[in-house]
Amino acid sequence: MNNFFIRLLFIFLLPLTGCIQVDTLIKVQPDGSGVIEETVLMDNAFVRQMKAMAEGIADQMEQEMENQAEQQKSEEEKQSETKRGEEPQKKPESFDLFDEKELKKRAGNFGKGVSYLSGSKVVTDDYEGYKVIYAFKDIQNIIINQNPGEKVPSSPQQESSDAKTKKEYITFFFTRGNPSELLISLPADKTKDQSEDTPADKPPEPADDQQTEAVAAQMKQIFEGMKISIAVEVEGTILATNATYRDGSRITLMELDFGKFMHMAEHFKKFSLARPDTLEETKQFMKDIPGVKVELNEKIQITFR
User: Fold this and answer.
1) 25 touches 37 (CB < 8 A)
2) What pLDDT does 198 receive?
3) Tens of pLDDT along 39-69?
């Protein structure tokens, strides 16, 4: 599966499906320190499926423990297992997206010197999730993976999938002063680095209307309500920037509303047939779609004080 859109599908496909909303805001102080505020929400139906699966696994493990206990007929067998250093199985805890222990561990995913500040559970009529805040001392040590796959709970089979492990990092360079300067580097479009030996653009594969409609229906169900946004906000006044989307002191790097896009039949059909290989190609394709904001500059400069 070397197609970006298909890889993205794998994040949400079997054994569970459900839409996700991920909002990441990086706030930067004039000295280069700051916080990362991240809100992750998932559809209530998805959460219920995860809870049901967790309960099923817990029940199965409990039954296995009972069977194991019945087989341990003698004290010698118990002592033998103790000598082998085997620990009794523990019944897994109930599923909850807001897992503070796990969120604290994830601090290191954002780079060196990042620490967990706070977290809270978020519940709405349609979604459930969490909001977490991490602190950092130097924005230059921060890396933001724009691929949302790692936010999605998965089965062991999915853990090894390409969509789950793919990293697409946004990095930062900072110069402190009056004014201060922040340089944001977005993941490069790897198609620009293809060698001359790479075959020329291949003609699109003939589309089967029935198959296309079936895939489209499935995609609409999966991506309905899905949103991804990444923004940077500086503490102060922006004096100059080449960013495409600026609102006061906030710069939007990405704001993808797949729900709106899925209901635009013509755009959606063209997108499905185009089969972009990377997120950068996807950005190029979606740049003129209403409800979508994508920063096309690979380097974004911000001068502020």
Assistant:
1) yes
2) 41
3) 999 888 777 777 777 676 666 776 777 777 6
Half-sphere exposure of 105 toward its Cβ, with a 13 Å CA cutoff? 5
In whole angstroms, give the CA distance from residue 32 to residue 16.
40
Residue 28, C-beta contacts closer than 8 angstroms, at least 6 positions apart: 34, 139, 174, 182, 232, 233, 234, 235
Query: What mean pLDDT is reported for the chain?
Result: 77
pTM above 0.70, yes or no: yes
Distance CA 171, CA 144 (A): 7
Token pair 């090894």 is found at 160
Rounded CA separation 180/302 (Å): 8
**Interstrand relation of 20-28 and 227-234 (parallel, antiparallel or unpaired):** parallel
Q: How many CB atoms lie within 10 A of CB 205?
A: 8
The backbone torsions φ and ψ at residue 34, rounded to the nearest 5 degrees and listed phi first, read 165, -165
pLDDT over 90, % of the chain: 39
Give dist(CA 80, CA 212) in Å, integer.
59
